[in-house]
Amino acid sequence: MSTPEPERGFSQAQVTHVRSRRRELWQRFWKSRRAVVGAAIILVAILVAVFAKYLAPYDYEAQNLMFARKPPLSVDPEGNMYLFGTDPLGRDVFSRAIFGSRVSLLVGVVAVALASAIGIPIGLVTGYFGGTIDTIIMRLADVQLAIPGLILAIALIAVIGGGLLPVIFILGFTAWVGYARIVRGQVLSAKSMPFVEAARASGGSNWRIITKHIMPNVWTPVIVIATSHVGGVIIAESSLTFLGVGVSRSIPTWGTMIADGRAYLDTAPWIAAFPGLALTITVLAVFFFGDGLRDILDPRLRL
Question: What three-state secondary structure class fits 74?
Answer without folding.
Answer: strand
